Amino acid sequence: MVQTVVPETSTHLVRLELRDIRGFTEAYLEVDPGSVTVLTGPNGSGKTTFLEAVAYLGSHRSFRTASRATVVRAGATRGIIRAELRRERNPLLVESELRDDGSARTLVNRTPVHGRAQLADAVPVTVFSPEDLGLVQGPPARRRELVDAALRLLDPRAAADLDALDRILRQRAALLRQAAGRLGSEIVSTLDVWDERLSGVGTAVSDARRALLNEAGPLVDDAYASLAGMARQREKVTVTYVPGWEGNLAVALAASRRDDVRRGGPTVGPQRDEVVLHIGPRDARTRASQGEQRSLALALRLALHRLVSQRRGSRPLLLLDDVFSELDADRSRALVRELPVGQALLTTAGRLPEGVVVGVEVGAVVDVRTLGRTA
């Protein structure tokens, strides 16, 4: 077993306020800073909304949808998420305004945030949800997002490079669309500028992704062993990074330029990086059972949570969205055993499986229907 030294959590959520978010016109949740808060209620009552709100404050993204606009309550023009946290003994206020046109702005201690790295540091979170199966079954973007979220928590330089990469890719894509299939002199000179920037930043991002996966790989294998059980001879899990180009990125961009212009979009670069997962000799995406895929998805989340906890010197806030409904009793107990639990929010539509939370301090069980007003 790979051993990690897990420190005490130093950032805690104290209070969460929602206004015109999803089905809530207003809602308030106060949580115990050092234990597990269990949110209960029937399906559709809004349990996941509270976890989604906390995760959004830490990433500017929802783990449920790609559209910010859908997070705003239907009929409202804007929604507000406000969280009071405590880092060591210092109060921390994080506020986000989301509009129905998809725009958003976020403040940390009343100061505007520029870049997602600052949010990841202010509200570090690890999310486990039923949709995690898509980490294994889904497209490469899902796996890149998982790796990049960990990088934003662990490496300030890589976090800045990721923000820069997003800007460069958007600008370069807009230029390719503007070219309309024609490689004129003005397009060439502007592409030269963007490709030079993309080459430097893209190479740095891919190097950081590779280094992180090399470090996390043994932890993924170890976590999978615990979750899958050792009743039979276990196949080793391997995590392999595959860059979205061959050789030098600057050379690859130059070689693909005409094709990029003709297609109106990029064909090489870090936006095409892949994380390949194998269980023994089998490609986990296409040749593993759904039970194996689910265990592997949990192992990926768990391994990166361990790594972030160890390297940062503090545990991210755990958000567990109805994960036990998708797991059998053995895997549920194994997940709880392996989680270095500090503060956590956990949702469930029913009672927790018998014996699952043995050894975990549950600070409160809250019915979400008591937390606020719905539309």
3D structure, described in words:
This protein has 375 residues and is an alpha/beta fold. The chain has two domains: 177 residues, Rossmann fold (3-Layer(aba) Sandwich); 181 residues, Glutathione S-transferase Yfyf (Class Pi), Chain A, domain 2 (Up-down Bundle), CATH 1.20.1050. The protein contains ten helices and 15 strands. Strands 7-6-5-4-1-2-15 form a seven-stranded antiparallel beta sheet, covered by helices on one side. β1 and β2 form a beta hairpin. It is globular and about 65 Å long. The termini are far apart.
Give the key terms:
Rossmann fold; alpha/beta; 23% strand; disordered N terminus; 375 residues; 10 helices; seven-stranded antiparallel β-sheet; Glutathione S-transferase Yfyf (Class Pi), Chain A, domain 2
Q: Averaged pLDDT, please?
A: 89
What is the overall shape? globular
Largest sheet: 7 strands, antiparallel
State the helix count: 10
Distance between the termini: 50 Å
CATH topology value of the largest domain = Glutathione S-transferase Yfyf (Class Pi), Chain A, domain 2
| Tally of strands | 15
What is the highest CATH level, the class of the largest domain? Mainly Alpha
Structural class by sheet pairing and helices: alpha/beta
Compute the number of structural domains.
Answer: 2
The share of residues in extended strands comes to 15-25%
Strand order of the largest sheet: 7-6-5-4-1-2-15
**CATH architecture grouping of the largest domain:** Up-down Bundle
Q: In which range does the helix fraction lie? A: 40-55%
Runs with pLDDT <50, length 5+?
Answer: 1-9
Radius of gyration, whole Å? 22 Å
User: Quick one: CATH superfamily of the largest domain?
Assistant: RecF/RecN/SMC, N-terminal domain
Multimeric organization: single chain
Element-level helix/strand string: EEEHEEEEHEHHHHEHEEHHEHEEE
